[in-house]
Specification:
Radius of gyration of chain B: 17 Å
Number of strands of chain A: 0
Strand content of chain B: under 5%
Number of helices of chain B: 8
Shape of chain B: globular
Structural class of chain B: mainly alpha
Number of domains of chain B: 1
Order of helices and strands of chain A: HHHHHHHHHHHH
CATH superfamily of chain B: RNA polymerase sigma factor, region 2, helix turn helix motif
CATH topology of chain B: Rna Polymerase Sigma Factor, Chain: A
Oligomer: heterodimer
Number of strands of chain B: 0
Order of helices and strands of chain B: HHHHHHHH
Structural class of chain A: mainly alpha
Helix content of chain A: 55-70%
Chain lengths: 323, 184
């Protein structure tokens, strides 16, 4: 810290220096600031230093520099000049493009994500934006397909996510309602998805671990309840695979086998073929009738509802009133 | 005229110099060259070197002129920043600190033809006297008394408060006064 005495002297010195710069001489300065008398040597030194301002650049050197500058300017004129504003806009544009590229990369990477993965919220957010621009009927079917694809992809990784199946079924039902009001070219997509869901859920219930099996079975029931929307009796549901039933309604089973393909993950987990019970599950299976009761060859044998397979109580009865 | 004292025509010179007007370019050089040269001369202690550095400063000025914008920074102050940066760059390349004079301990500054004898003598004496000062004291003395900046301009150029510059100025002049007393 500057002692106060030094600070006072420095202040007086500066005042005198300003008077000298204004053209006053030492005598005038000391008359105006008598307290500056002890600073006389410093003031004289300052006047001596100012002689150094008499030194100047050699005229030849100055001319050489001027010519150099003028030559530079004439050459620069021939080159296009990018203004600072252009630089800023270009920089901003590059930054924006970079940001868009990063965003597109993230969105692209998020597209394959599944629940509980870091990018899944991004996928859902983008999906929400896209869905908002779609007609309701298209949106419902699109969401149903996307949730189902996620369900199958997760199953292929050994992850069973019944919530996805249920969400898909919810959207499917919504789409089917729109279809009922106003049939459209999407009918084929609806039906194909419904049929695929039935086959996959069937296999999933068998292949999934016990902790998720009940939820998948619930999803399967929800699927069955949609049957009426797709021209099938609700109680019957889709035909059971591997029953050895007579050819009719074999065409439906044939269509299913032709149209659907078991996801790789379900196959690896030992999803049984349509003709074979998976190992370890034989005892849980309700024995199924090998042939239809007399007089009912053309009808599909009712399927034992899930949850009632234990105990081997025999084949399910045909509901009263139905033949 | 001090280094940072703008000329009334300065803005017009700058606008025309940007377009390559030779007269405007010459006017800018003539207005600021002496101040820049003196600053570099009393900081490096060599007239020829100071000329080279001055030429570099003004060439840099021509390169950066399209991007100069006066946002509270007058043209003279902007030019001085270029000069200071060039000086620091020179010292870095030389790997020397400015407290030691450059090759002038015995022979003094290199004489250049066409410089008046009295000017050489004055600059030599001043350059020798400045060696007794610290780096910051020397900077204040060169800017204030040899280049001709005001106290406020010196404070802004050095990035210090006005009070700090006053104190440096006081101590520097006191040290120089003692030196001159001994050498007389």
């Amino acid at each position: 810290m500057i002692p106060s005495e030094d600070a006072r002297e420095a202040e007086i010195l500066e005042r005198c220096l300003r008077r000298l710069e204004q053209g006053a001489d030492l005598e005038v300065c000391l008359r105006e600031f008598p307290e500056a008398a002890p600073l006389l040597p410093l003031l004289k030194t300052a006047l001596w230093l100012r002689k150094g301002q008499e030194v100047s650049l050699r005229p030849q050197a100055l001319q050489r520099m001027i010519r150099q500058g003028q030559l530079y300017a004439s050459r620069a004129k021939a080159r296009p000049v990018v203004s600072p504003l252009t630089f800023r806009w270009a920089g901003a544009l590059v930054a924006l493009l970079g940001l868009i590229l990063v965003a597109l990369s993230v969105v692209s990477a998020a597209e394959a994500s599944l629940p509980d993965e870091p990018l899944y919220p991004v996928k859902r957010a983008v999906e929400g934006l896209l869905a908002a621009a779609m007609p309701p009927e298209e949106r419902a079917l699109w969401l149903a397909e996307r949730r189902w694809e996620e369900f199958e992809n997760a199953a292929a990784q050994g992850r069973w996510l019944p919530a996805l199946a249920e969400e898909s079924l919810h959207h499917l039902e919504e789409a089917a309602r729109f279809e009922g009001e106003r049939p459209s070219p999407q009918q084929a997509r609806l039906r194909a998805l419904y049929e695929r869901q039935g086959v996959i859920l069937e296999q999933a219930v068998r292949a999934a671990p016990p902790e998720t099996r009940s939820e998948l079975a619930r999803a399967q029931r929800a699927w069955a309840q949609l049957a009426r929307m797709f021209g099938q009796p609700e109680e019957e549901g889709p035909p059971l695979p591997g029953e050895g039933s007579p050819p009719s309604p074999a065409p439906t089973a044939e269509i299913l086998r032709e149209r659907t393909r078991t996801p790789p993950g379900l196959e690896r987990r030992g999803t049984p073929s349509l003709e074979r019970t998976p190992p370890g599950l034989e005892k849980r299976e309700t024995p199924r009738p090998q042939r239809s009761p007399p007089g009912q060859e053309r009808r599909s044998t009712p399927r034992t509802p899930p949850g009632q397979q234990d105990g081997g109580k025999g084949p399910a009865q045909t509901p009263p009133g139905r033949r | 005229m001090g280094l940072l004292t703008p000329h009334p025509e300065e803005k017009r010179w700058i606008a025309r110099a940007r377009k390559g007007d030779p007269e405007a370019i010459a006017a800018l050089y003539q207005h600021y060259a002496d101040g820049i040269y003196r600053y570099l001369l009393y900081r490096v202690g060599d007239a020829e070197l100071a000329e080279d550095l001055t030429a570099d400063v003004f060439l840099k000025m021509m390169e950066d002129l399209p991007r100069y914008e006066e946002r509270g920074l007058p043209f003279g102050a902007w030019l001085f920043r270029i000069a200071r940066a060039r000086l620091i760059d020179h010292w870095r390349r030389q790997h020397r600190r400015p407290t030691v004079a450059l090759d002038n301990t015995e022979t003094g500054p290199q004489p250049i033809q066409d410089i008046p004898e009295d000017e050489i003598a004055t600059s030599e004496m001043i350059e020798r006297a400045l060696r007794v000062l610290t780096e910051e004291q020397r900077e204040v003395v060169v800017l204030r008394f040899l280049v001709g900046m005001s106290l406020e301009e010196v404070a802004r150029a050095m990035g210090k408060s006005i009070g700090a510059v006053k104190a440096l100025q006081h101590r520097a002049l006191a040290a120089l006064a003692r030196y001159l007393e001994k050498t007389r």
